[in-house]
Amino acid sequence: MTWDMEDEDGWNHDRYIVPDIVLRQCQGLFYMVKRVESQRHDLKIRSIYYMLIYRSTHFYHEEEIKMKITLKDGSVKEYAEAKSVYDIASDISAGLARVACAGEVNGEIVDLRTVVDQDCELNIVTASDPEGLRVIRHTASHVLAQAVKRVFPNAKIAIGPAIDDGFYYDFEAEPFSRDDLDKLEAEMKKIIKEGHELKRFTLPREEAIAFMKEKDEPFKVELIEDLPEGEEISFYDQGEFVDLCAGPHLMSTKGIKAFKLTSSSMAYWRGDSEKARLQRIYGTAYNKKEELKAHLEKMEDAKRRDHNKLGREMELFTTVDVIGQGLPLFPPKGTKMIMKLQRWIEDLEDKEWGYVRTRTPLMAKSDLYKISGHWDHYKDGMFVLGDEEKDKEVFALRPMTCPFQYYVYKNTQKSYRDLPYRMSETSTLFRSEDSGEMHGLTRVRQFTITEAHNVIRPDQAEEELKNCLDLAYYVLTTLGLQDDVTYRLSKWDPANKAKYLGDDNYWNSTQDALRAVLHEKNVPFVEADGEAAFYGPKIDIQAKNVYGKEDTMITIQLDCAIAENFDLYYIDQNGEKKRPYIIHRTSMGCYERTLAWLIEKYAGKFPTWLCPEQVRVLPISEKYADYANEVCKELKKNDIDATVDNRSEKIGFKIREARLDKLPYMLVVGQQEEADGTVSVRSRYAGNEGTKPLAEFIDAICKEIRTKEIRKELPEEEKAR
Known about the structure:
The structure is a single chain. This protein has 5 domains: about 1-55, no CATH class; about 65-125, Beta-grasp domain (Ubiquitin-like (UB roll), Roll), CATH 3.10.20; about 130-300, Threonyl-trna Synthetase, Chain A, domain 2 (Threonyl-tRNA Synthetase, Chain A, domain 2); about 330-360 and about 400-600, BirA Bifunctional Protein, domain 2 (2-Layer Sandwich), CATH 3.30.930; about 610-720, Rossmann fold. It is about 35% helix and about 25% strand. The strands form 9 sheets. The protein has an 8-stranded mixed β-sheet with strand order 18-22-23-30-27-26-24-25. Helix 16 (about 505-520) links the parallel strand 24 and strand 25 (about 525-530).
C-alpha cells in the first residue's frame, strides 16, 4: 500500500510504501491517541503527527526489498518487504506463531513485534527455551501489576522484572497478606481470561514524563528521567493498564498458562535503604500446570530446608534483636559443629598443606587500612571507632586479615628459600552490611573465616594457585558439596578504573594467569566484570541457597600490587631484595555461611562426623539406666558425641523423638544387651541394624567419623524394621 504525506509547513515527503506491520502500528497509535484525548491529555495535532512519524518504525521507498532470513534449521526465507518477527513466525506455521514468545535475531532476544528489515539469522523462541519462559514471566509481572491497580487502586507501581525462578513486582502500598495474594491471583486469572492484546508504543521523553505524571506514577517518572538522552522510551498497553517497559512481552495475556503468587516482602526502592520502602510480591509462571506443580513442590522442600528456619528449629543458631541484626548466637549444638569444622580445617592446613598459624588483633588504627588501601576503597563497609576530625587515633574493626598478616611476614627477614610462606588464621571479621541484605547466616556483620595469605615468588604463582584450587576442591569433596558449586573468574571493571589499583597491563596479566590455571585444571567457569577485589582478580567458588540466590563460598585471589604498599620483600639468590606476590585465599570460607549451606544441603541430616549429637542411648526402662550410662561413658572415651535419654517414657516414643532430631544412631539397651555387653543399633541410614557387641559398634562408628564418610540413607521402604 502507498501513502503520500505533506505536512502543514509544506514539507514534501517522497512517496512511501507502508508495510502491513507499520499500518498495524499506526492503527495502534491512533487508538492510543484517541484514548489519551478521552483522558483530556493536551496533545496537539502537530505533536500527534510527529509522534506517528517517530513511532512508525520504517517507511520504505518503492524499490523492491529482498531479505534473506536464515532460520535455526538452516533453511532460508526471502521477503520483499520488512516483516515483524511474529509475521515471519506466522509465515512458517500458524502453530509456531501460537506458541512463539520472542525472537532471537543474530543472537539477540527481541520482541515479537520487532520489525526485521535486513538479512539476518532468526530463531523463534518458545516456552521450551529459557528465554521464552522469561518472556512469559515478564508478562505475568505486568498482569500482576494490572491486578494490583484494580484491587488496590491507590498502589503505586515501581518495577517488575523476570528472575531466575519467576518474577516479582514492587509497589508502594500497605503490606500484602496471604489473603491479599489470593485475591490478586483471582484477579490475574480474570485478566488472563479477558485476553488483552499487549500493544507496544513509544513516546518522546517529555511526553512520556507527562504521561506518567498524569497517571500519578512517581517511580515511573523517575525511571524515565534517569534514562540517557536519546534512549527509546517504550510502553506496553494491555486493556486499561499501561506500563513503562522495554519488553519483550507475549502478544496477549492469554499466553500465560500456569502461575502462582508465592510470597511478599519489604524491599527498598532501587535497593537503597535511604529511599522508599516498597512491598515486593514474588510469583512464578510456567507454560504447563505440571511444570508449575513440580516447581511448587520444590519450593515446599526449599522451605523445609531453609537454614534460617531449620537451623533455628534444630537449635544450631539464633538471633536476638537487642544484640543486633547480623550478629548470630550459637547454642551448644551449633557451636559443636563449627568447632568440628574448625579443628578439621586447621589440622588439615597445618599438617598436610604446609601452613603456619597466626593470631592477630580484631582491630587496628586507621593508619594500617590507609597503607593497604582499604580506607579509600572499603571504608563504608567498616565499623569505624572514633571521629577522624576530633580524635587523635581512630580505630576500625577489621574487615579482613591481610594487612595484619603482612606484618607477621615482616617480623623476620625471608629469603627465596622460605617461600612460599603460607600464613593461615581462623579470623573473626566485621563488615557493615546493609540491613536489607542480611539473611540468616549467609550474610552477617560478624563472621569467622578460614583465611590465609600465601607470600610467593613470581615463578611460584602458577603452582601455588593450583594448590589453592586443589585444597578447596578437597574440602568441598569431603563435605559432599563439590557438585553444588560453580566457578567464576572475577575481573575488574575497565570502565571504572578508579576503583582499582594498577593499570591495564597489570589487570590483563593477572586475569590471564588465573584463567590459565582454570583451563589447565579443566575447571568450567564463567567470567564476570566488576567482581574483582580492588587489588587483584579472583577465582570465586559460588553456590546457591535453596531459593536460588548465589553467594561466594570460597575465594582465591592473586595480588601482585599490595606488597609495594607494605614494603614486603624477600632476598633472592643474588642477595637482592625482590617484591613477592600474594595469594589471598580461603579453604572453606566463612563458617557461618558454610553451616547455612550444610543445613540446606542435608536438610539437617548431617554426615555422622559433623553431627553435634552422634549417638543417643535409649534404655527401655529405668532398670537399665546404669548400663545405658556405662555405654555412653565408653562412647565418650572414644571421642563420640553421645547422650542418654533417661526419661520415663516408652521406648517407642524415645525412638520417634530421636528420629525427629535427625540423629545418625540410636542404641537401645535392655536386659539382654546388659547381660551380653551388646547394643541394639538403629540408624537413620538403614533402620534396624541388629544387635552388636559394643566394641564392634564403636570400631565401626569411629572409622566412619575418622574417614568422614558420607553414608547414604536408604529409602524408608528398604530400611529394616
